[in-house]
Specification:
The complex is a heterodimer.
Chain A lengths: L20 H10 L5 E9 L5 E9 L2 E8 L2 E9 L5 E7 L2 E8 L2 E9 L3 H21 L7 E3 L28 H10 L5 H18 L2 H14 L3 H50 L2 H5 L3 H43 L1 H8 L1 H37 L3 H6 L3 H53 L5 H43 L20 E8 L8 E8 L4 E5 L6 H8 L7 E6 L2 E2 L5 H5 L2 E4 L8 E2 H5 L8 H10 L3 H6 L7 E2 L8 H15 L3 E5 L7 H15 L3 E5 L11 E6 L2 E6 L1 H7 L2 H14 L25
Chain B lengths: L25 E4 L5 E4 L5 E9 L10 E4 L5 E5 L7 H14 L5 E10 L2 E8 L2 E7 L2 H4 E3 L5 E4 L5 E4 L7 H10 L1
Antiparallel strand pairs in B: 1-2, 2-3, 3-4, 4-5, 6-7, 7-8, 9-10, 10-11
The chains are: A alpha/beta, B alpha+beta.
């Protein structure tokens, strides 16, 4: 959802409540005495033709109307009290709203996906109206069922237009306000900014002086033969050129400095804010998008702050001063000089549109080319195995050619543009030379003034072209600003705790009390889950994918809060604890252990920066990582992470366990910690885990049930809730769901397991990376 | 479920790391120049290697003594506290195990496609070396401490970038 402030009186009205007057009149005649309650525009007719239709509800009746040439046709009609359920079904490209009555289901309207969200609201409204009517008659209430809660396309909250990729409505950005907010980043540097703009003005003024002196040189020195003026004029010119250089340097350095400083502040502020945003925020967005906001979009803000403002000053100053000088010398010639201006403006705007189209297309084609590479390079084994090298090359050539063609076209248009503008400029000077020359010959105008006129012309047309581009550049900056502000305006994590309890010193008893939670409204993942975990107990979470294992972990970490019910830690509501202090008590070992760029020692001490080297070694030993670390040339100082050496999955896993050990948390979370390693490594990891889980409340998620054999209790999740709880032996004896799962895995391992000799289970795969250093 | 590992206290003790009392360790050299070590418990070990655990960040502390076959004899947390002869031998061995000259001045850096040739003065003399991939061969260990790894795997340390002379700093700034 966008957060932009709605403009007064422009709030987005969904298609409801805009029933055309003649339909309303017709309805009044058709259903006398009934009160119109709701109307929704529908874009399909019954059999699936595009056309205008309406779903209308009064306080008694629901009606589906087709608008046809001969007048409104009733498609379906039901008394509200007969409706027992309202049903919404979403299909590909369309959907259907139906009612269910005692006679069975009956379709009301079909609609395209564009209306999916509106129709859901409409269905809900219909259910509400039917419920109200049925209550009067003492009947049961009605609900909306079916495919509800689907995410529709993001729309602008003000005008209802579909939002662009970045979730910005191009129409409704409040550009003035945005400009003001972007300027607020300059406020700490207000005097530098003022000085910079003053310098820009001065520099522009000085830049425009030389032609005036050229005129003096020609008229007063050369033609009038006043040798005594030559020296002073040349000195004056030199002073002008020197001060122009100094001013230009000072101006451009100062404003570049300002832009960099201001945008550095924006970046820091944005990143700081990003770090504090909830996990949910990140789940809704792509990494690339957020990275672009940090790098690309902040760059546009810098452009606005550093270049845009000074250019407004410089360009408008230039145009105004030149026009003033020209008109004060010879108004008629000045008018002639303006002749090419509209032509230049026109050409610029025409060419800009075309060039932009080519550039966009070139960018897209470059993307296509990169996509081919991104496919083929990682997939090189497949390409070679199927002997498709030539085909891949052709595929690439096709994209390469396309990109090149577009780029060449863009270059052609640009070259033509440059030539045309040069010609138009020349047209101005030719005109000035002709009429100015005639005036000169007639003795009305001196030679110096004519020369001065033409030199000013060359300085005039550039800024004219650039001024016409200023608005476009501002739009870029405004859109970029909007994206950055969206991040800055997003609320940071969950609400502040009510009591700010510190979690240090907790025992680690965790109780789920009737916890309900769903990521989307109307789609519960956990319903009424209750579970009592003693301090130091290890719980294994079992169940198929998507059943809510990770959700339980997310709730424990307070990445989300329960919708209803509560989680208690040592008897206190989790929401009463200070968030950071609580997370400080949680340790995590994930399936894909994440190592930061830095040394192994830094990675191990990530949760406890004050740890001594000996503590780091102790943690490495406890995690069975010490031996392989010491075998690396740089020992604990070995660089790992994205740009460091490649460690195998099992090695990374053990470093992350060492990290958790040193962090010394009260609550531990394992997510499939041993799922992709060989048996020997698994044993090393398992024994490290045994050391780690002692005296810590532990939640372990595993597909491979053998890894849960040390769990005190196993919780089998199914259908939004807990299906079975008990020890391994208890659950086996019960021969319920858990026993069934274990049996299935044993069978798999015995028969078709690809690496049966490892004797583990079905999710057994050889490590991908090779241990040790690969340079 | 075995929960015996917890031995009462749940914070892991540094005791898990076997630290040798440097005052009671004796290091000598045999005829072949290999190290012989007498541990505090009186046991004697020959052909002992010295392996620094933190060769970059703690080049003069935390050495592991390892027997042939890679078995750890223990950790010398403070090798400086060894007796004079032992200390000399251990540090010579550590220097052999991990040779990393400290760059004291950068004379020049020439960059061509994908290769940077560094000319430096180090505490071990003047050296010229090639750095191939900047992203994989330049390790920042804190704000102003940098390790460079050349094309052959040799390491060079800039202990404190800020402490270098002006020209060195400018060169380093541009190429790191």
């Amino acid at each position: 959802m966008r957060r932009a402030k709605p403009r007064a009186g422009a709030a987005y009205q969904p298609a409801a409540a805009q029933l055309p007057a003649e339909l309303e009149r017709w309805l009044g005649a058709e259903l006398p005495g009934e009160l119109l309650q709701a109307a929704q525009h529908v874009d399909l007719h019954g059999p699936g033709h595009f056309g205008e239709a309406w779903l209308v509800a009064t306080d008694r009746t629901v009606l589906a109307l087709r608008v046809e040439a001969k007048g409104p046709q009733v498609g379906a009609r039901f008394p509200l009290e007969d409706i027992e359920q309202v049903e919404l079904r979403q299909f590909v490209g369309n959907g259907r709203l139906s009612v269910i009555t005692a006679a069975g289901p009956a379709p009301l309207v079909r609609f395209t996906r564009a209306l999916a969200r509106d129709m859901e609201d409409c269905g809900r409204e219909l259910a509400r109206l039917a419920s109200a009517r049925r209550r009067e008659l003492g009947r049961a209430e009605v609900a909306l069922a079916g495919d509800v809660g689907e995410q529709g396309v993001a729309r602008c909250g003000i005008c209802g237009r579909v939002l662009n990729r970045d979730g910005v409505c191009e129409e409704c950005i409040n550009r003035g306000q945005l400009a003001w907010r972007m300027l607020s980043f300059v406020r700490p540097y207000a005097w530098q900014a003022t000085l910079g703009l003053v310098l820009a003005g001065l520099a522009t003024w000085v830049t425009l002086l030389p032609p005036l002196y050229t005129r003096i040189l020609i008229d007063d020195v050369l033609i009038a033969h006043r040798a005594n003026l030559l020296g002073p004029t040349v000195v004056a010119l030199s002073v002008i050129y020197i001060s122009r250089s100094v001013l230009t340097y000072a101006r451009s350095y100062l404003l570049a400095w300002l832009g960099q400083r201001a945008v550095a502040d924006v970046r820091s502020m944005t990143y700081r804010h990003l770090q504090r945003l909830s996990v949910g925020f990140y789940e809704r967005r792509q990494t690339g998008q957020l990275m672009a906001r940090m790098t690309h979009d902040t760059g546009h803000i810098q452009d606005f702050v550093a270049d845009y403002l000074q250019e407004i000053v410089i360009q408008s100053f230039t145009v105004i001063i030149i026009m003033y000088i020209l008109f004060s010398f010879q108004p008629f010639l000045a008018l002639l000089a303006l002749v090419p201006v509209p032509l230049i403006l026109l050409t610029t705007s025409l060419v800009r549109k075309r060039v932009r189209r080519y550039y966009r297309s070139a960018r897209r084609r470059m993307g296509g080319m990169q996509a081919v590479l991104a496919d083929a390079i990682p997939g090189v084994r497949v390409v070679k195995a199927f002997v498709q090298e030539d085909r891949e090359s052709e595929r690439f050539d096709l994209r390469n050619e396309g990109y090149t063609q577009t780029s060449i076209s863009a270059a052609r248009v640009r070259s033509a543009f440059t030539a045309i503008v040069a010609l138009l400029t020349a047209l101005g000077s030719v005109l000035v030379w002709y009429y100015g020359g005639r005036m000169g010959l007639a003795g009305v105008l001196s030679a110096g003034v004519v020369v001065m006129f033409t030199s000013y012309l060359w300085q005039l047309y550039g800024p004219v072209g650039q001024i016409s581009q200023l608005y476009e550049r501002f739009q870029f900056a405004a859109t970029a600003g909007e994206r950055v502000f969206e991040v800055l305006d997003t609320q940071t994590e969950l609400e502040e705790p009510r009591k700010q309890l510190l979690a240090a010193g907790i025992k680690g008893a965790i109780r789920f009390d009737q916890v309900n939670f769903g990521y989307e409204d109307g789609e519960p993942v956990l319903a009424d889950v209750s579970l009592d975990v003693a301090p130091g107990e290890m719980i294994g979470l079992v169940g198929r994918t998507g059943v809510g294992k990770s959700t339980i972990i997310n709730l424990i970490c307070r990445f989300y809060d329960p919708d209803r019910g509560a989680i208690y830690v040592d008897g206190q509501d989790l929401r009463d604890y200070d968030l950071r202090s609580w997370r400080g008590q949680i340790g995590m070992v994930l399936q894909e252990p994440f190592l930061f760029h830095g040394s192994i020692a830094e990675n191990i001490s990530y949760g406890k920066a004050t740890a001594s080297e000996q503590e780091v070694i102790a943690a490495g030993k406890a995690a069975n990582a010490h031996d392989f670390i010491m075998a690396l040339p740089d020992g604990y100082d070995t660089q790992v992470g994205e740009r460091g050496i490649r460690l195998s999955g099992g090695e990374r896993q053990r470093i992350s366990i060492a990290r958790a050990i040193l962090h010394n948390p009260k609550v531990l979370i394992f997510d499939e910690a041993t799922s992709s390693v060989d048996t020997e490594t698994e044993m090393l990891i398992q024994s490290a885990i045994q050391r780690l889980v002692a005296n810590r409340t532990t939640f372990a998620i595993a597909h491979r049930l053998s890894t849960l054999r040390h769990a005190h209790r196993i919780v089998v999740l199914e259908d939004r809730g807990v299906a079975e709880v008990g020890t391994h032996d208890e659950l086996m004896a019960k021969s319920g769901k858990y026993a069934h799962l274990v049996e299935a895995q044993t069978k798999m391992a015995a028969h078709g397991a690809p690496r049966g000799e490892h004797g583990g289970g079905m999710w057994h795969e050889e490590e991908e990376g090779v241990g040790g250093e690969q340079i | 479920m075995s929960r015996s590992e917890g031995n009462g206290s749940d914070t892991l003790g540094v005791s898990q790391v076997e630290v040798l009392d440097a005052g009671q360790v004796q290091v000598r050299q045999d005829e072949q120049g290999r190290l012989r070590v007498v541990l505090p418990d009186g046991s004697e070990h020959s052909n002992v290697r010295v392996v620094p655990a933190f060769p970059i960040t703690r080049p003069d502390r935390l050495f592991y003594l390892m027997e042939e076959g890679g078995r750890e004899l223990g950790l010398l947390a403070e090798p400086k506290r060894l007796d004079r002869d032992s200390r000399r031998l251990v540090f010579a061995e550590a220097d052999l195990a991990y040779f990393m000259p400290h760059i004291t001045r950068i004379l020049d850096v020439q960059e061509s496609t994908g290769l940077a040739r560094w000319e430096v003065e180090t505490d071990r003399g003047v050296s010229t070396f090639d750095v191939v991939s900047r992203s994989e061969s330049v390790w920042w260990m804190g704000r102003s401490r940098v390790v460079l790894r050349d094309a052959h795997g040799n390491r060079y340390l800039i202990e404190d970038l800020e402490a270098l002379d002006r020209r060195s700093k400018v060169l380093a700034d541009l190429y790191l």
